[in-house]
C-alpha cells in the first residue's frame, strides 16, 4: 500500500512536470524569431522607453517588409518597466521564461540595464543595451553588449569641452545619488576636469524623484561656479534649471545624454538657453543613411527621432546583422533558434553571442559601431547647444 | 549669512505647503480622532484636478493670468471637497463605531486605492503643470531672492490658518465642530447634527489639501500619482510636532519641517532629506508627545 502511494505520487509529479514543460517546448515551431524589448514606457523617464521602442520597431518592421532574414520574420515583444530597476528585472525574466525570446534589447538607464543583465547572462540570452553608458553594464557578463559609447569617454569629452572650448575653470556639480549613470559620469568628469587644471567648487547630490532643488542650488550659488554640471535625467534637469533661474543663477548648465528627450525643453521652458549637452546622434547629418532614418521616423511617428531612438535602431541592426551572419554561416544553428528551448538552442545562442561580439564597422545611423574587447562601442560624441528654445549642433568629437 | 537667510526663506515657503496639508490632518483628527492617511492622496487629486482644469480652460502657456489661477484653485478645492465627502461617506462612516484601529486600516486602504486609481486614470508618467502665473523674482534684500510663487504659498497658508481659526472659534458651525470633538454623543443629544458636522470637516480638510496641491504645482511643476505619499507623511509629522488637533500648531509644525529639511540638505547631505522628518517625529514622541502647542490630556479609561 505504502509503495503504491509513493509510486502514484511519483507518477503524478512526473506528469505534472511534463504538462508544465511540454507546451512550452512544443508550441513554437513557426517561421519567426522572437526578440524581447524592455524599457520605460511610463514613469519618470517615459520618453526614453518610448523613443527606444519606436526606433526598434521601425528597424524591425522595415526588415520584415524587406523579407526578414532569409524569409524568417522577427517578432518583438515589448515590456514596460515603469522606469524602475526592480520592474526591469521582472520584465526580462518574463520575456525569457514565458515568451522564450532568443535575445533582449534594452534598457536606456544604466541602473535598469544592470538589474536585468544578470538574468540574461544566467539564461545565456544575448542582451544589447542601445544606450546605457555606465561601464559596469557590460562588465556583468559576456552576453551583455551595448551600441553606444561609455561614460569615461563621455565624462572626458565634457571636461575637454568645458575646459578648452568654453574656457571655464570653476564648476559645480549636482548629481543624482540614486542613479549609477549619474554618479559614474560625475566621477569620470571630475577626474578629467581636474587633470585639465579645473576646479570642482561644489559637488552636491539629489535623489531621483525629488521636487525641490533650491537647497542644493542655494549652496552652489554661494560658491560662484562658472557653470553647473547636471549629469542627470531630463525630468530633474528641467526642474533644476527652472529653480536655478528663480534663484538668480544665470550660469550655463552642462550635461550628458540623460538630457536627450523631447520633454526637456517643455519642462525647462527657457531656463536652459545657453546650455550644452552630449548626444549620440545628430539628425542634421547629411549621410543618406541618417537622412533616410530621419524621414522614415518622421513619417511613421510624426516627430523627429532623438538620439535614443537612433541608438535603438542601431542596436536592433547590430542584432539582426549578427543573425543574418548566423543564417549564412550556420543554417542549422539559425533553425535551432526558432525551436524549443533545449541544449541545441543554447549552443545556437552562444554562436549568436560570438557573432555579436565580432561586430565590426556596422554602419549605424548614430555612427559606425565596432565593439571592443569589453563589448562596448567606440564612436563619436556630438555636442548640442540650446539657443532660444532650439537645439543647435555644436561639434562632433571623435574618440 | 546670505546663504543661510536664503535657505531659511526657501524653507519657510516649502514648509507652508506642509502646513496646508497638516491643517487638514489636524482638523479631521481633532474632530474624529482619526488619522486620515488618504489625506496626502487627496492632495495629489487636487494637483491633478487643477492640471486638467487649467488645460480645459486653456490657462497657462503664453498668457498666464491670476484670474485663471484663481478659477483653477477654486475648481480643485471644490472637486476635492466633494471627494473628501465621498470618502467619508463610503469608507469612514460605516466603521465609525468600530475600533480606532479599524478606521486607521480603512484610511490606509483608501490611500492605496486613490494612488492606484491615480496611476490607472492619470498614467504613471509625470505631468508638467502649466504656468498659471509667470514666475517673477523678488529681492528681499541682503541677496535673498524668492519668487512671487513662494510668497503666494506663504501668504495663502497664513490666511487660511487665520480663517480656519476664526471659523472654528467664531461661527456656529465651528462651535458645533468643537462640541463634536469634545464629546460626540453629548453633542448629538444637544441636537447637533453630528453627521453633517463631520461631513463639513472632511470637505474643508480636503479642500485645504487641494489648495496645497495647486500651490505645489505652481512652484514645483512636476505632478504624478504617487506625489502625495511623502508630503502626506511629512505633513502628518508636522501635525504631530505642532500638537495634533491644534490649528496654529499645524502651521508651526509645517514651517519647522520645511526649514529643517532645507538646513539638512544645505548643510549636511541631501540623503537625510526624508530622514529628518522621522528624526523629528521620534524626538517629539520622546520629549513632548503632545507636540509644541498640544495640551496634555489624560486619557479616560
Question: How would you characterize the overall build of this protein?
Answer:
With 399 residues, chain A is an alpha/beta fold. Chain A folds into 2 domains: 30-149 and 287-379, 3-Layer(aba) Sandwich (Rossmann fold), CATH 3.40.50; 151-279, 3-Layer(aba) Sandwich (Rossmann fold), CATH 3.40.50. Helices cover 49% and strands 18% of the residues of chain A. Chain A has helices spanning 2-27, 46-65, 85-97, 110-123, 136-139, 151-165, 180-195, 214-221, 234-246, 264-268, 288-301, 307-329, 331-338, 343-357; strands at residues 32-39, 73-80, 103-105, 127-129, 144-146, 170-176, 199-206, 227-229, 253-255, 276-279, 362-364, 367-369, 381-387, 390-397. In chain A, strands 7-6-8-9-10-13-14 form a 7-stranded mixed sheet, with helices on both faces. In chain A, strands 2-1-3-4-5 form a 5-stranded parallel sheet, with helices on both faces. In chain A, strand 1, helix 2 and strand 2 form a beta-alpha-beta unit. In chain A, helix 2 packs parallel to helix 12, helix 12 (307-329) packs across helix 14 (343-357) and helix 13 crosses helix 14. With 301 residues, chain B is mostly helical. Chain B has a single domain (2-287), classed as ABC transporter involved in vitamin B12 uptake, BtuC (Orthogonal Bundle). Chain B is 71% helix and 3% strand. Chain B has 11 helices and 4 strands, in the order ααααβββααααβααα. In chain B, strands 1-4 form a two-stranded antiparallel sheet. In chain B, helix 1 (2-32) packs antiparallel against helix 8 (194-219). The radius of gyration of chain B is 19 Å and the shape is globular.
Question: How many beta-strand runs of chain A?
Answer: 14
Shape of chain A: elongated
Q: What is the overall number of helices of chain A?
A: 14
- The string of secondary-structure elements of chain A, in order, is HEHEHEHEHEHEHEHEHEHEHHHHEEEE
Unreliable residue runs of chain A: 21-28
Please report the distance between the alpha carbons of the first and last residues of chain A.
76 Å
The major β-sheet of chain A equals: 7 strands, mixed
The mean pLDDT of chain A is 90
Beta-strand percentage range of chain B = under 5%
The first-to-last residue Cα distance of chain B is 52 Å
Helix content of chain A: 40-55%
Q: Counting H and I runs of at least 4 residues, what is the number of helices of chain B?
A: 11
Integer count of domains of chain B: 1
Query: What's the alpha carbon Rg of chain A, rounded to whole Å?
Result: 23 Å
Q: Architecture of chain B, CATH level 2?
A: Orthogonal Bundle
